[in-house]
Amino acid sequence: MSGQKGNYPQAPKYINDFSKALAGEVRILLQEVGKLRDERRQLQQEIAELMTVKAKYSSGGDYAPAWAPNPEPAPAALPPPPPPAEIEPAGPAPSAWRTVHKRPGRREKKEHKALPAPPPPPAIEAPPPPNLPAWAQWRPNPLFTPQPVSASPVPAPPRPGLFGPSTPPPK
Description:
- By secondary structure, the protein is mostly helical.
- It contains 1 helix and no strands.
């Protein structure tokens, strides 16, 4: 039994070569992913710094010079707008309803028999007074009718084992 480790046969040489080549490729890909992650983190930090500088030096920021003129000039006194001209009513708007004409070549569907209307639900009782505790305000559902429970529970049939019926114990 030379050439075997334990009870496992030795793997063919091409599997070992393939595993080594695959491990090398995975290592290279992981290094590239690490570089991309670092570049992404660096770009995010640069963007954050640029946004900080923009917030500081924009109008109203921490470093806005006091001598700079206001970015918006004061509006000149505008003459008051002219009074609105009287608009004559244009009359009633056209109707939004439209007439639908049936096509002459179509057959009309037969009328279905109307189903009997379900019985109306029972009247709801008046709500309890609000000063009662929450547990005392509970009312049973009038639409729920409980079914009688059987006297003895029916035992479930024995389940077969995971891989079929179990074998009898040894004698």
